[in-house]
């Protein structure tokens, strides 16, 4: 065999291997372990299938790198449990390459005793607890109103009249249906919780100042909503992210806007009021009619002093109608800000077409900017772009003096964050001294 043939064969082998093994975790995919599962069934009769589903929402919200990392962490936790409570012959596999669906096949406990139903349930709880404890940064293991992972299980025994492959797939499907029922029950609970929050206005408003970094003058205040009841949806970010998936989003955003205006602790005196709206909420008929304008007039707030801050957690699919709705607001005299610039779907296309008044730079890209030249260079390149748009950059999430001074030195005019002032009601005092 010459060198060319060797490399060609090696390349084909790697391609073949990539179809059978997941490169992210090193685990085999299900078809590769069917014979091992068959042997487990031959040896012990009953086989337990434990199904762990890592939510796909993380990939769409945070990117594939974060999703892959979470899958690896979960697999590492399970591998550790194989040394503690799982038998050595436990089969760990994925439903497919790059899948977030992890499968465990086993028949006995660590000592080789056949598992009873109660013991399987206890084992499921141990696995669940271990994974939860090994997911730092994901506490309380919920993200955007969705559990990071769910777990279910089922059993199967070898049947003389059915193919083993179909028996295995039916058991997997049964475990998957258990997870789907968990999701549906959880969804119903969240819907009822959201309805209660809206109906009882269990929302209070706090205000965070946005200041001129050079002289400390207050440009305006961002109105932020806080949930007053102790529930799963008490985290505001989770609340709004879940509301986007329901038909209650407009009701929620309306009540938050109303609270922000009604509970203003003092007159704005020419300063701006930043009101958050989802991209979906921009289509609210209240914006197109005079209802919202009249409401502002009743509270002596000029619409020219109101900034509609658009958050883009989800992609804008119909740019034409979205741009039209934003233009209606601008034509009425409202100012526009794009939130989370540099995260989510705040694309350059969106920005260039909307021509916002403000670009709010995502806090993840502000963090430790004084130590990260790439972050610093990236922000510096945006300054000429925003100037051509006639917009201003607002740096969000400033938490340290080093971040503050770095942003000021590169020419960022406005900023907000805990270093400047915590969100409060009444308006908080500015901690930064001129």
Show unreliable segments. Answer: 139-145
Look at the helices and sheets and give the structural class. Answer: alpha/beta
The name CATH uses for the topology of the largest domain is: TIM Barrel
Strand share of the residues? Answer: 15-25%
Q: Which CATH class of the largest domain?
A: Alpha Beta
- What is the terminal-to-terminal distance? 76 Å
Chain-averaged pLDDT = 87
Please tell me how large the radius of gyration is: 27 Å
Please report the number of helical segments: 15
Total number of beta strands: 14
InterPro entries: Cyclic-di-GMP_PDE-like, EAL_dom, EAL_sf
Organism: candidate division WOR-3 bacterium
Domain EAL: 187-434
GO molecular function, one term: cyclic-guanylate-specific phosphodiesterase activity
Topology overview:
Layout: H1 3-20, H2 34-44, E1 46-54, H3 57-62, H4 64-84, E2 91-94, E3 101-106, H5 117-133, E4 142-143, E5 146-147, E6 149-157, H6 164-199, E7 203-212, E8 218-227, H7 236-243, H8 249-262, E9 272-278, H9 285-288, H10 291-298, E10 306-311, H11 319-332, E11 335-341, H12 348-354, E12 358-361, H13 363-366, H14 373-389, E13 392-395, H15 401-409, E14 414-415
Key phrases:
434 residues; alpha/beta; Alpha-Beta Plaits; TIM Barrel; four-stranded antiparallel beta sheet; 15 helices; 14 strands
Overview of the structural elements:
With 434 residues, the protein is an alpha/beta fold. The protein has 2 domains: 3-181, Reverse transcriptase/Diguanylate cyclase domain (Alpha-Beta Plaits); 191-415, TIM Barrel (Alpha-Beta Barrel). The chain is 45% helix and 19% strand. The chain has helices at 3-20, 34-44, 57-62, 64-84, 117-133, 164-199, 236-243, 249-262, 285-288, 291-298, 319-332, 348-354, 363-366, 373-389, 401-409, and strands at 46-54, 91-94, 101-106, 142-143, 146-147, 149-157, 203-212, 218-227, 272-278, 306-311, 335-341, 358-361, 392-395, 414-415. The protein has an 8-stranded mixed beta barrel with strand order 7-8-9-10-11-12-13-14. β2 and β3 (101-106) form a beta hairpin. Residues 139-145 have low confidence and may be disordered.
């Amino acid at each position: 065999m010459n060198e060319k043939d060797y490399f060609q064969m090696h390349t084909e082998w790697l391609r073949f291997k990539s179809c059978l093994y997941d490169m992210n975790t090193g685990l085999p995919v299900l078809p590769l372990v069917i014979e091992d599962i068959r042997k487990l069934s031959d040896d012990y009769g009953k086989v337990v299938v434990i199904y762990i589903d890592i939510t796909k929402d993380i990939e769409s919200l945070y990117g594939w790198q974060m999703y892959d990392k979470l899958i690896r962490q979960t697999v590492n936790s399970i591998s550790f449990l194989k040394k503690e409570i799982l038998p050595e012959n436990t089969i760990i596999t994925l439903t497919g390459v790059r899948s977030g669906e992890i499968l465990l096949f086993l028949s006995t406990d660590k000592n080789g005793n056949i598992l009873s139903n109660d013991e399987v349930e206890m084992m499921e709880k141990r696995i669940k607890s271990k994974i939860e404890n090994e997911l730092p940064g994901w506490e309380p293991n919920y993200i955007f109103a969705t559990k990071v992972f769910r777990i279910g299980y089922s059993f199967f025994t070898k049947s003389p009249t059915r193919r083993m492959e179909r028996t295995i797939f039916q058991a997997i499907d049964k475990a998957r249906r258990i997870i789907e029922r968990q999701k549906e029950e959880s969804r119903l609970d969240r819907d009822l919780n959201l309805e209660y929050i809206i109906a009882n206005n269990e929302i209070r408003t706090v205000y965070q100042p946005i200041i001129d970094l050079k002289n400390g003058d207050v440009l305006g205040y961002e109105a932020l909503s806080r949930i007053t009841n102790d529930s799963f949806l008490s985290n505001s970010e989770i609340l709004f992210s879940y509301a986007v998936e329901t038909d209650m989003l407009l009701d929620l955003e309306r009540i938050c806007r109303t609270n922000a205006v009604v509970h203003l602790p003092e007159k704005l005196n020419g300063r701006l009021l930043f009101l958050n709206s989802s991209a979906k909420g921009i289509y609210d008929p209240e914006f197109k009619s005079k209802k919202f304008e009249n409401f502002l007039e009743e509270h002596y707030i000029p619409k020219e002093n109101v900034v509609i801050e658009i958050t883009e957690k989800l992609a804008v699919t119909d740019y034409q109608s979205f741009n039209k709705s934003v233009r209606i607001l601008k034509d009425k005299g409202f100012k526009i800000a794009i939130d989370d610039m540099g995260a989510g779907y705040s694309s350059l296309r969106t920005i260039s077409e909307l021509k916002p008044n403000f670009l709010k730079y995502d806090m993840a890209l502000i963090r430790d900017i004084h130590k990260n030249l790439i972050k610093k260079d990236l922000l510096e390149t945006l300054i000429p772009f925003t100037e051509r748009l006639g917009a201003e950059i607002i740096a969000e999430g400033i938490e340290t003096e080093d971040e503050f001074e770095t942003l000021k030195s590169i020419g960022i005019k406005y900023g907000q964050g805990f270093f400047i002032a915590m969100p409060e009601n009444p308006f908080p005092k500015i901690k930064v001294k001129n």
